[in-house]
Write a structure and sequence with these properties.
five-stranded mixed sheet; 7 helices; binds zinc ion; five-stranded antiparallel sheet; elongated; 2 domains
Length: about 325
């Protein structure tokens, strides 16, 4: 017997639902689907509420009841903007108002996102200008046995410069324990870093992480573009293909997440690398693992593994 989840946000958006006796009840149930428990007030004004997944007092949610048959609500950080109407709504004006609210809220969110990204880009440029070169003795670099190449350093964090359309827009910080964080609110979609120089290159490589890119750069001497993650490989490869002369070859170098299929997941690194290579008609290069090694998944691992004498010996 399959039991369907009775509370799904879509149920309330203009669907008309006979069981609601009033717009307050309909709105309360729609909010409950997002874990928000409150008794709505039909004040006609914007009312704020706390999103349940953020600290108390966050005020990240809003709602407005326009009339007996239409309301709207939104939760900013979740990108939620919805309209709630009662079945057979005969107040099209209120419904239109509710839709306008939701639309304006979405525009406001987009505007806020852009402002945050612009602020993060300012910070990135400032920090980048102030930072010294990456310390070759930084614990993370030492552990990887890699030189700092294009990295700079601020305090204990290594900085990876992230560019979008030729401009520095964000920084990925790599901490001594290996955790990585971009600047809050900064652009992450489509951003990339570069080890080496594109000018005069006969071939350019594209890889996921900085350490993989550094290992490839060391081994092959070619410039390597860092896409940061598997999902970003294809967008970054496409932009690179548009930018580079046709005679310059592009090779996508994938991570081999070979441990994932056993867990019922796709080998994301391999799948996305192949997808990116196909998307630009480029070459694909995957790491060749040492005999008996079960832990390595990328070119940086393999290099380290070989430097350390390999696994299982
Ligand atoms: Zn290995």
């Amino acid at each position: 017997m399959v039991t369907q989840n009775p509370i799904s946000p879509q149920c309330y958006s203009d669907s008309g639902n006979d069981k609601h006796s009033s717009i307050e009840v309909a709105l309360a149930e729609a909010l409950a689907a997002y874990g928000v428990m409150l008794t709505p007030r039909a004040s006609g004004r914007f009312e704020r509420f706390d999103a349940p997944d953020k600290p108390k007092g966050n005020g990240n949610g809003w709602y407005r009841i326009h009339g007996p048959q239409a309301a709207s609500f939104g939760i900013w950080h979740l990108d939620v903007s919805e309209v709630v109407t009662l079945h057979g709504a005969s107040d099209p004006e209120a419904a239109t108002q509710a839709r306008l609210d939701a639309m304006r809220d979405r525009e406001r969110q987009e505007h806020e996102r852009q402002q945050q990204a612009a602020k993060a880009a300012d910070k990135a440029r400032r920090w980048w200008a102030e930072a010294g070169p990456g310390d070759p003795g930084h614990p993370w670099l030492a552990g990887k046995r890699l030189p700092p190449y294009n990295l700079r350093q601020r305090g204990e964090a290594l900085l990876v410069p992230l560019y979008f359309e030729g401009e520095l827009v964000n920084l990925e910080r790599i901490f001594p324990d290996g955790s990585k964080r971009p600047l809050k609110g900064g652009r992450v979609k489509g951003v990339a870093s570069l080890i080496g120089h594109l000018a005069g290159a006969g071939r350019v490589l594209v890889a996921e992480g900085w350490s993989t890119a550094a290992a490839l750069h060391e081994a092959m001497g070619a410039p390597v573009v860092v896409a940061r993650n598997a999902d970003n490989l294809a967008p970054v490869a496409r932009r690179l293909r548009q930018r580079m002369p046709a005679e310059v070859g592009i090779t996508v170098c994938g991570d081999d997440d070979r441990h994932l299929p056993a867990k019922g997941k796709a080998n994301k690194g391999a799948v996305e690398a192949r997808h990116a290579a196909l998307a630009i008609g480029g070459d694909l290069l995957m790491p060749q693992f040492c005999d008996g090694c079960e832990s390595c998944t990328d070119f940086a691992d393999v290099r380290l593994c070989r430097l350390g004498g390999g696994h299982g010996e």
